[in-house]
Amino acid sequence: MSLAHAKPVDDDPSLFEPLFELIANDVIDKGHSIRPYALPENLTSLLLQHITELPKENFKRAGIGRAKEHTINDFIRTDEICWITGNSHAGNAWIKWAVALQNYLNKRLFLGLFSFESHFSHYAKGDFYKKHKDAFRGEDNRVLSLVVYLNPNWSADDGGELVIYPAYSSSSIIVEHSKITVTPNFGTIVVFLSEEFPHEVLPALRDRYAIAGWFRLNTSIANNIDPPR
Ligand code: OGA
Ligand code: MN
């Protein structure tokens, strides 16, 4: 794959609609969608090129919790992250794609998604993120999680799988075989309801690059501005 010759990323959101339709149907049926190698290749290449060119200092140890409760915890996660802004060509193209997905899902699912935030993540050899949920009922306004992977030629020996556990009801019947394991391969897209699915990242055995993002509801009201991350 030649990154230097990556073609321009298409701007017209209607080109993505067949994929958005598949994702919307999966979310309606199951609450999650896993689409291997589905992100447009031009966009995936652009993002990979960008992430590998970002200065190392831009990546900071990821914490857990928001604002005042934000802490670094080596037992829970060890990856490094860099929040994505629209200031770079790649970041801008990514946000455009994600917002086109947001608009499509709002039309189809009436989720009322209002904003999108995302970061690059880098797991070095041995890094992991223990089982967690991205949002808790009544506590946060993250509705839908979106993860895409930027790793060409990931093999079964490279670890770093995303494991998604079943959303269980109050009766807590856990069906072991409904655990889903996702290989973090180039262009694979994962979408799931943030409050419903616990998930974890198994230790990566080589550098692992991904983007994690969240579509949120607007819960800012008058003097109660949304807490900073
Ligand atoms: C996260 C997360 C999953 C992955 O950043 O919250 O769960 O596969 N990431 O990188
Ligand atoms: Mn997560």
Keywords:
229 residues; alpha+beta; seven-stranded antiparallel β-sheet; binds N-oxalylglycine; binds manganese (II) ion
CATH topology title: Jelly Rolls
Q: CATH homologous superfamily - what is it?
A: q2cbj1_9rhob like domain
Q: Which overall shape is indicated by the principal axes computed on the Cα atoms?
A: globular
**Strand order in the sheet with the most strands:** 1-9-6-11-4-3-2
| Amount of helix | 10-25%
**What is the total tally of β strands?**
11
List unreliable stretches of 5+ residues: 221-225
**Helical stretch tally:** 3
Give helix and strand order, one letter per element, not per position: HEHEEHEEEEEEEE
Strand content: 15-25%
Summarize the biggest pleated sheet: 7 strands, antiparallel
Structural classification: alpha+beta
**In the CATH hierarchy, what is the architecture at level 2?**
Sandwich
Can you offer a commentary on this structure?
With 229 residues, the protein is an alpha+beta fold. It has a single domain, classed as Sandwich (Jelly Rolls), CATH 2.60.120.620. Helices cover 21% and strands 24% of the residues. The protein is built from 3 helices and 11 strands. The protein has helices at residues 17-30, 41-53, 89-109; strands spanning 32-35, 60-61, 80-83, 115-123, 129-132, 142-149, 162-164, 180-182, 189-193, 199-201, 208-216. The strands form 2 sheets. A 7-stranded antiparallel sheet has the order 1-9-6-11-4-3-2, with helices on one face. It has a 4-stranded antiparallel sheet with strand order 5-10-7-8, with no helix packed on it. The radius of gyration is 17 Å and the shape is globular. The N and C termini lie far apart (36 Å). Residues 221-225 have low confidence and may be disordered. N-oxalylglycine binds next to strand 10 and strand 11.
